[in-house]
Amino acid sequence: MKSIKTPRPRTEPAKLLRPSDPEALKWEMQQIQLAITRRAYELFEARNREHGHDWEDWFQSESELLRPVSTAISEFADHLSIRANVLGLSDTELKVSIEPRRLVILGAKEIIPGGAAEEKQPADFYPDRVFKVIELPAEIDPDVSVIELQSGVLKFELPKVAKSETKAVGA
Questions:
Q1: Given this model, what pLDDT does residue 55 score?
Q2: Disulfide: which of 18, 43, 53, 107 matches 130 by Cβ 3.0-4.6 Å?
Q3: What pTM did the predictor assign?
């Protein structure tokens, strides 16, 4: 019997992303947090203001407004390597900020009215925004960090700050 070769799926080339200024993203982060807060309060009111379900309301609100972003963090002696699943979002729909101890991912799917994506999935069916804050286990150097987007995965290579540099900064 002859074997048939299955063509390999083509992977899209990696796209380098530039980090955004953390201060510039604070406004957008606050707007998302406000929307989550408003929705959680609506859920509280819908339950006739019954107390004791605040976490349930918050998590339900997040799940209604945000796509989940799964992450994997690998720590090495000299750097951190982070992978974040943002499938369905392009490089133009994502904003990332890198701070010495924190990473923020913001994104919103641009839905074209009347487009094919809108016909397949109504906007209410699946959230079109991502918001993820990752506290880093070590201090990194944001200026030499590399961010790539490939096949729906954000890849971060974050060099750690040398211990002698950390002491000099804190002294």
A1: 92
A2: 107
A3: 0.77
